């Protein structure tokens, strides 16, 4: 008779809290945990899940990509929400008026958004502004944009391989 002792695959592997000990991030998690529980909006659940993510899974979003995504039809007068960093892009000459919420914004990107007459929110301000995520667009940077992904894939030298 066999004994049921193979419990190595029982555990659901997902983050229930951020690995970081940053107290400000922890406060945001507390706030969005409350909002995710008390509001029936998936926006808050997605933001909470993204707050738990590692830095490699929260890639930076460039100003040019954000402008391109916010120019799409039906996205005017909406708030761009990025659970991550917004970085400046020197290739963009003129920045339109944007309303942005992000964990971090580089100093040059911040100055360019504000100079264009835009508005920058923090996540606690966003929670007061739109607790259910109404009038927002969730954006994220390219996850496969990191240098390491150039080393993955078909072996270098084989046909149709772009691997380093």
UniProtKB/TrEMBL annotation:
Keywords: Ribonucleoprotein, Ribosomal protein. One of its GO terms (biological process) is translation. Residues 2-164 form the Large ribosomal subunit protein uL15/eL18 domain. This is Ribosomal protein L18. One of its GO terms (molecular function) is structural constituent of ribosome. It comes from Rhinopithecus bieti (Black snub-nosed monkey). It comes from the Eukaryota. Belongs to the eukaryotic ribosomal protein eL18 family. Coiled coil: none annotated.
């Amino acid at each position: 008779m066999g004994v049921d002792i193979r419990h190595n695959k029982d555990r659901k592997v997902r983050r229930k809290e951020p690995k970081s000990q940053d107290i400000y991030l922890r406060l945001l998690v507390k706030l969005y945990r409350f909002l995710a529980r008390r509001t029936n909006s998936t926006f808050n659940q997605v933001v909470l899940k993204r707050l738990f993510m590692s830095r490699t899974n929260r890639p930076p979003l460039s100003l040019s990509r954000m402008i391109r995504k916010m120019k799409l039809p039906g996205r005017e007068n909406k708030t761009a929400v990025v659970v991550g960093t917004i970085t400046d892009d020197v290739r963009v000459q003129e920045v339109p008026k944007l309303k942005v919420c992000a964990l971090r914004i580089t100093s040059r990107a911040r100055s360019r958004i504000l100079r264009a007459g835009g508005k920058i929110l923090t996540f606690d301000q966003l929670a007061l502004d739109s607790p259910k995520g109404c009038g927002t667009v969730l954006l994220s940077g390219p996850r496969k944009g990191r240098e390491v992904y150039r080393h993955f894939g078909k072996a270098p030298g084989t046909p149709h391989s772009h691997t380093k």
